[in-house]
Design goal:
With 428 residues, the protein is α+β, with helices and mostly antiparallel strands. It has four domains: 86 residues, PRC-barrel domain (SH3 type barrels); 63 residues, Thrombin, subunit H; 104 residues, MgtE N-terminal domain-like (MgtE N-terminal fold), CATH 1.25.60.10; 114 residues, CBS-domain (Roll). Strand 14, helix 13 and strand 15 form a beta-alpha-beta unit. Helix 8 crosses helix 10. The radius of gyration is 26 Å and the shape is elongated. Keywords: CBS domain. This is Mg/Co/Ni transporter MgtE (Contains CBS domain). GO terms for molecular function: magnesium ion transmembrane transporter activity.
Amino acid sequence: MSGTRVFVARLAGCTVFDPAGDRVGKVRDVLVVYRKNDPPRVVGLIVEIPGKRRVFVSIGRVTSIASGQIITTGLINVRRFEQRGGEIRVIAELLGRKVDFVDGSGEATIEDVAIEEVGPGDWAVGQYFVRRPKASSSPFAKGTTAFATWREIRERQTGSEAQSAEQLIATYSDLKPADLANTLLDLPQDRMIEVAEELSDDRLADALEEMPETDQVHILTELGDERAADVLDHMQPDDAADLVAQLPADRGERLLQLMEPEEAEDVRMLLAFAPDTAGGLMTTEPVILSADSTVAEALALIRRPELPPALGAAVCITLPPYEPPTGRYLGIVHFQRMLRYPPHERLGSIMDQSLDPVTAKASAAEVSRILASYDLVSVPVVDDNHRLVGVVTIDDVLDYLLPEDWRSQNDDDSVATHRPQGRRPARA
């Protein structure tokens, strides 16, 4: 990036600072407006400030754009951003759009947009970085790339022309699930569904787990049954159960039948419990080992990158079988305790038997008290035969206790003082 030309895709995630060097937020998009005889003008940045709030920062308040950081005057209106008519979000709406060269040499897809400073506090679209269709049918072939000015290309404005979401997905590839969820929800409805359809099953599952249930249902409703079932397979069982319970009963049953049998069995089991009980809050995929397993084996399992941190904080010890419902529950080994012993140490000799598990019928309030009293991040759940059926993690409890709209609340919003009656309605 130079001082006067910046490619927008590289701005995504850049930190915004005030003149004193204090962090204001991160850039999520660039807003432009079209003009009749001149290139599109940049009107401002969409910045995410603490509390996940998206706000508008006028380009006139940007004093410097350098590699990896943006300096502003520090005067920012924290009112939530609302897109106005005629405004276009470059990353969300422009990247991936099909264009035609005005000289008749063919079509291309916009992969990036360069904005240039044309005067003090005045920025406009300078060039488009575009890719032409590949000339070969080989799966390894790629189309040639080129730079084009605003006058050299013409955008397709017909509603029937579907915009590619591939470039947008690539731009958001490094976002954490919570940030990806917020980014998806910030897109126009049609664009959000288009991007959701192009995301991989596991990536979409991660994002859905971070969304309010109404938005989860909306996106899943737009997906075909087979794709929706594949996404549910990749979700944590407790999150999948919460989502299935919000669907019409007939579609929920169809999706359960299309899911992998083992995943569907876990979801059906969770749906059988009341939402305000340990059984209704738990996940059925804890780390489970035998008493003869070693510290080295346990550490190898909890190192897996796909394992949520709360589940990796402890290993449950049971008799065989080692899939819920397991054999008799014996105890738990916290990962910090494992770090104090040699790799060959048997887990059975260092497990904690002082913490009593809760039953699946235990109330959410009881589980909360146990987690708070003993400074835990998870508590084991057993059935009437003392077999391990799952664990309740601290994030499960927080999701239950916080207001249903907590994801959309901000630091300056008031927090509801009543306790909700659970995320998931009881199923007959």
